[in-house]
Amino acid sequence: MSDQSSVYSAYRGNSYLFGGNAPYVEEMYENYLANPTSVPQTWREYFDALQHVPASDGSDAKDVPHMPVINAFAERAKQGGTRVVGARGADSELARKRTAVQQLIAAYRNVGCRWADLDPLKRAERENIPELEPSFYGFTAADQEAVFNTSNTFFGRDSMSLRELINALRETYCGSIGAEYMYISDQGRKRWWQQKLESIRSKASFPNEKKKHILERLTAAEGLERFLHTKYVGQKRFSLEGGESFIASMDELIQQAGARGVQEIVIGMAHRGRLNVLVNTLGKMPADLFAEFEHTAKEDLPAGDVKYHQGFSSDVSTPGGPVHLSLAFNPSHLEIVNPVVEGSVRARMDRRADPKGKQVLPVLVHGDAAFAGQGVVQETLALAETRGYFTGGTVHIVINNQIGFTTSDPRDARSTLYCTDIVKMIEAPVLHVNGDDPEAVVLATQLALEYRMEFAKDVVVDIICFRKLGHNEQDTPSLTQPLMYKKIAAHPGTRRLYADKLAAQGLGESLGDDMGKAYRAAMDAGKHTVDPVLSNFKSKYAVDWQPYLGKKWTDAGDTAIPTAEWRRLAERITAVPENFTVHPLVRKVLEDRAAMGRGDVNVDWGMGEHMAFASLVASGYPVRLSGEDVGRGTFTHRHAVLHDQNREKWNEGTYIPLQNVTENQAPFTCIDSILSEEAVLGFEYGYASNDPHTLVIWEAQFGDFANGAQVVIDQFIASGEVKWGRINGITLMLPHGYEGQGPEHSSARLERFMQLSADTNIQVCQPTTASQIFHLLRRQMIRPLRKPLVIMTPKSLLRNKDATSPLSEFTKGGFQTVIPENKDLKADKVKRVIVCSGKVYYDLAKKREEKGADDVAILRVEQLYPFPHKVFAAELRKYPNTTDIVWCQDEPQNQGAWFFIQHNIHENMLEGQKLGYAGRAASASPAVGYAHLHQEQQKALVDGAFAKLKGFVLTK
User: Fold this and answer.
1) Concatenated DSSP letters for 885-899?
2) CA torsion through residues 239, 245, 250, 255, sign
3) Peptide bond into 532 cis (omega under 30)
4) What is the C-alpha separation between 227 and 474, in angstroms, rounded?
5) What is the pLDDT of residue 50?
6) Of the residues 811, 838, 857, the one at which a domain ends
7) 14 — phi, psi (to 5°)?
8) Which of 54, 182, 333, 375 is the most buried (most CB within 10 A)?
9) pLDDT of 417 strictly over 50
10) What letter does residue 716 receive in the DSSP assignment?
């Protein structure tokens, strides 16, 4: 082997193919030949390649396990047969080169993208990657014309010279498209990418009309930005300049999706290029956009939002028919829109009975820094393959301007090689593409969509471009990026480069200029730039929100159900199939619920919930319940999903009674989610935003954990209606209660929801009985009001007999916003009224009995917002001689409802009455962690509710 290069010699000396590892490799190969799936993926790929090396006689014979043959000859030798002496092939060097060729092919497929021509600014030198050099494998100039078998490639020939093969590999994997897909474990999908890329060598071949259309889209993208830049100087717009190929990508995606049967596309994106998408993709009238810049647009919302947060919808014509486009409203929290889009898509899929996502397509547009940096990206990706959140695969497009927000050094931008590396967790392929090659961008988009439609998997197009201006139009990026912006200043622009290229191909010297003039004329006229936008088309799947507009929260529906219906439903949800073995503890729960259904005993919380769900689905209202432990319930109270104790497979043997309530019932969906709050709640918000007919519930494992989803609560749930006019009926169940479980398992942060309450934007309730949760859940769907409902649900009350309700409270009445005093007191003798909400009521009632304090009435406020002034005032006036009113709560004084509730109580007090506070002292932590201290505090606050007023006292 003296003719081998020093590089290859070093490789051989250290490779896993040589030296002391040989016995291990031999054993691995034997295992592979017997069963290919028995060896690790990387070894299987290597041995697969060896199987394509022709035999020495030129045949296609496959290798077989060696050891059985060796053992057979050894046995013959023992029996006096011919002695067999092992021998190597005469041409071991040729065999070595054949193997090296397969390794070279694998190297380009794996890391060829790192040599791809991706940066329009051409700032970085080509990385040193020895595995992509022929010399790494011992090849010399003399080997360039040697012919090798390439039947495991898709270059169109079964054999090629080494020179031809290297050229083909570099054209395919090192051009304007850098593909990453070899980490995909499924061989079929991996071979799909090899066939698609290698058969065309990653090069587009478009007719002239297609090229002209691409230029027209680039002209529109650049034209809008330059028009706005000159007409509205200094106003923020988050320009797309430098990334104009993105508009061509979106156009191709929509047209090709329509041709493949997609009827709806839901798009989520942050600021960069959003105005361009609104005008040049969705067809928003430029005149309407200009009115927003000029502050003359019609303002009909309580708050409104800036123009680069706005959503939009339209219908456009495609080769396959009309496609409805929806751009989701998005706040400044960048990637937070991702799960919202996915939830909206799932709702549309369910409405269309489209479980594979063939008719609805989610498209998420990312910035490079946010894609790598925002945790909600990972949380959303983790939903992709789960049953309750599957949306048929998402097309991700990254507008990669290589700079992020204000990062002054690329070493600080991320810890991964590519900003897209996070998607490898779900084996999503990535096509990195040079934004200065718009044809390559369009080709990459075509391939990405085709992959998504074929395999229902996520896929990424990473458009490497640049940002001509600063993060917004008011900063100076050269302050921190002088080298980069010298390059950008010298760059002629993607449109100019492509126009020159087409001119050189004979498509017209003035083509680009003519298109630019035509677009400028359309801008001056404020006309559509997307042709054709279908102004009068309406899909039969469109949601009519009209019945839910302009409704008042005081509008009530009839939430009671007849006794006969109660009993029928109770029988259905407590029955299990024959030969289905439930756990003994669950069997007891079902037996108890059957007794509750008959009216033999009072109804507990779990049964109240179940009967609300059962009656809704029986009436045609779907129910979707999700969260980290909702099937069983965190506190083992729900048992909506039953598990056969004798099942033999993990994915079998479950039964959901609420899916078997009646014939032709509405769906009941119960999903134990991944361990995520932000993405899952965002998903459910998105689902509810597109389906007012379904009771959509997200339950936190503990209410405390809702703070992990605070962005969704603040930016969407609480403010979406006043900012964007988007009504939403999502329900949050947040377990809340002070039972001595410490600071992380006590508080759902009620005070935060109180602070967010205004403009009748949300409903915040804290029910304390089984009948109350029953009526509250039913009310959420039956009355024609769609507002987010936040329920502070209990923990200890789930099994508190005092919180149970008689059957009569379900078959008549409704949800009580204030529960009046239920003890027979002499109204004129009452001197003090204690007002409270939640579990503390039962502590107060017990204390009153111990003290014999018949001059104290207790009122429970079950709906904290919107505050029920009329009902509360009527209850308070039942006790005309009251002098003291006390608000009592479990939470610390700076938390809970106190600071919100005091002015509502004060508004309804009579002259001379005083308002005081009984509860824990202000605290930086929501609860103490020491059990004895908790008990001391709890006793003190209950005692304080009956003691003389002191400290803060508010007098009417």
Assistant:
1) EEEEEEEETTSTTHH
2) positive
3) yes
4) 17
5) 63
6) 811
7) -110, -5
8) 182
9) yes
10) I
My answer on whether 514 and 624 are in the same domain is: no
Give residue 612's region: left, alpha or beta (phi > 0; psi -120 to 50).
alpha
For 949, left (φ over 0), alpha (ψ -120 to 50), or beta?
beta
Segment holding 845, helix H or strand E: helix 840-851
**Residue 537, Cβ density class (10 Å: 0-12 exposed, 13-18 middle, ≥19 buried):** middle
Rg (CA), the chain: 34
A 10 A CB-CB count for 347 gives: 26
Query: Is residue 553 domain-resident?
Result: no
DSSP 127: P
Residue 96 near residue 9 (C-beta atoms within 8 A)? no
- The tens digit of pLDDT for each residue in 72-121 reads 444 544 554 433 333 344 368 888 999 999 999 999 999 999 999 999 99
Which two structure tokens, joined as six digits, stand for 408?
A: 């002054």
Alpha carbon distance 70, 12 (integer Å)? 27
Helix, strand or coil, per DSSP, at residue 464 = strand
Closest CA to 380 of 357, 368, 364: 364
Specify the number of domains making up the chain. Answer: 4
Contact 596, 605 (CB under 8 A): no
Q: How confident is the model at residue 31 (pLDDT cuts 50, 70, 90)?
A: low
- pLDDT tens for 863-886 read 999 999 999 999 999 999 999 999
Are the CB atoms for 733 and 351 separated by under 8 Å?
no
Joined together, the tokens standing for residue 27 give 């054993």
Q: Describe the chain by its helix, strand, coil percentages, rounded to 5.
A: 45, 15, 45
Q: Does 542 fall in a domain?
A: no
Q: Are the beta carbons of 316 and 325 closer than 8 angstroms?
A: yes
Residue 8 pLDDT exceeds 70: no
Query: Does the pTM of the predicted model rise above 0.85?
Result: yes
For residue range 745-766, what is the model confidence (pLDDT) as tens digits? 999 999 999 999 999 999 999 9
Q: Is residue 540, in this structure, part of any structural domain at all?
A: no
Tell me which DSSP letter residue 702 carries. Answer: S
**Mind listing the pLDDT tens digit for each residue in 346-382?**
999 999 999 999 999 999 999 999 999 999 999 999 9
Residue 578's domain comprises: 571-740+752-811
Ramachandran angles phi, psi of 932, nearest 5°: -65, -35
What is the pairing mode between strands 321-327 and 264-269?
parallel
